[in-house]
Amino acid sequence: MPMPPISDEFSPRELLSRETVYEGRIWNVIHDSVKLSDTGGTIERDYISHPGAVSVLVMDDEERVLMVNQYRHPVGMRLWEIPAGLLDVDGEAPLDAAKRELWEEADRTADHWAILTDVFLTPGSSAEAVRVYLAREPQLVPEDQRHERTEEEAEMISTWVPLEEAVAAVLAGKIHNPTAMIAILAAQAARSSKYTNLRDANEPFDVHPYLREG
Questions:
Q1: Average pLDDT, the chain
Q2: Do 99 and 109 contact (CB within 8 A), yes or no?
Q3: Is 176 exposed, middle or buried (0-12, 13-18, 19+ CB in 10 A)?
Q4: Coil/strand/helix, residue 30
């Protein structure tokens, strides 16, 4: 008998207790006690409670990818990434957040949006969920309407990279940002169907632990 298509699935478990053991500026650390099943035991887990994020792979008519370069202090490196940011504005829809981040980090808007994929970056230790968008037909924002970047973002630079070169850089270990890597490889896969198999940009972000409907 053929196996059904693989798909992650929701798996509710009984929460016995929850405690915030650390409160940070952006995220907290949570301690949960969870019952695995009616006949199973319990587990104790510490993990990061994270607001989640969005990232945007911008592609022009020549199928070049817009890459931004930013200093990342925890790893002590400047990394080539794609525009991205936290879902940290109350009530802001993920697509609106992605459009805001594109404006803030790359001085651009885009006419066409679709979902490349959704990802949990470190599901064993963090609730962080990231929605990765594909943005096409980009336009520069007029200079007098651009966001003033500060701190590390003030040092950001950007460049256009052909998709094939970006894929090669990922496979050569030259690009290390996980959402950039995922977006580049997903875009390469989606190109084979001329991007027609991508989801609508307004689809609910239901896999996000804090945005699930119901």
A1: 93
A2: yes
A3: middle
A4: strand
Q: Tell me how long the chain is.
A: 214
Q: Per the residue annotation, which of 63, 81, 152, 153 is the catalytic one?
A: 153
Domains assigned to the chain: 14-49 (no CATH), 53-200 (3.90.79.10)
Is 203 in contact with 116 (CB distance < 8 Å)?
A: no
Q: What is the pLDDT of residue 155?
A: 79
The larger pLDDT score, comparing residue 40 to residue 120, is at 120
Closest C-alpha to 205, from 82, 101, 55 = 55
User: Residue 214 pLDDT more than 60?
Assistant: no
Using a 10 angstrom Cβ sphere, with 0-12 exposed, 13-18 middle and 19 or more buried, the burial of residue 194 is: exposed
Element (H, E) at 185: helix 178-191
Instruction: Tell me what the mean pLDDT of segment 69-91 comes to.
Output: 94
Read off the pTM: 0.92
Residue 23 known to be catalytic = no
Strands (DSSP E) found in the chain? 14-23, 28-35, 42-49, 53-59, 64-72, 77-81, 84-86, 108-120, 129-140, 157-162, 199-200
